[in-house]
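Render this sequence as a predicted structure.
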Amino acid sequence: MMCAEELGAYGLRSLGIGERLLPRSDITLCDQVVLIGSGMIWNVYFGVLALAAGFFLATLLALGKAATSAWIRKPADWFVFLFRGSPLFIQFFLAYEAFVRLPDSIGVGLFGAEGADLGWLTRAYAGALVVLFFNTSAYAGEIFYGALRSVPKGDLEAADAYGLTGFTRFRRIVWPTMLRLAWPAYTNEAIFLFHATTLVFFSGFPAWRQQGDALYYASYFADKTFNPFIPYPIVALYFIVLTLIVISLFSAAGRRLNRHLPSSERPRRPRAIGQLIR
């Protein structure tokens, strides 16, 4: 088959579209590039959704850690400590066991003898996403909290002078300044999150109908060809391209956040290749 034909047959296989059976013999380079690229759809899915949802929870956690009330501050502190202090790999396994056992015992009391139908939580597309969401929220929450404490007092005094209080003060002064200060570190967290999606393959969450991520297909080809030096570098190249895209998007967002500053005070635009090497 030509690469174009393989793209049509396997390009969306990870979503259940196209050929059902994987190639078992005469595996070509095109087979590996197309199928591993198809699996990258799931890695992007995990990263984008966890990052988008985690951004808002991280903001709430930062505000919670900065709260004066211990009833708000302590839960936020312990949440961040729990997910930052334990390995992500262990979190996947503990979450899988919890999603397998707890819904049945809880559901019996709430939904009758048959329990609750929460088996979807044991699938990678849902359960693993929940773990990544909580994990990145904890790390980003600590980043935002540090930036929140670094908001210049002059900005707060200026807000008070203009009579800005409450949510208006937070939305127009505190939150934009916090994001501007936290954005470089948050960019690194976004990159690490996309890289961490490869751990889903090693976790207890099973792929649904052999529709796995990039590492799932790379492992399959390594077993079939007895040559891991082709599929795994392909995965690495895909993630390098993905990292460059993330850096470009976050750099554009960073320039947007700093558009009000004089050109001499704006952070120097990072070169994507240089930031990737660092």
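Summary. Residues 201 and 216 are 6 Å apart (CA to CA). Residues 38-260 form a domain with the MetI-like fold fold (CATH 1.10.3720.10).
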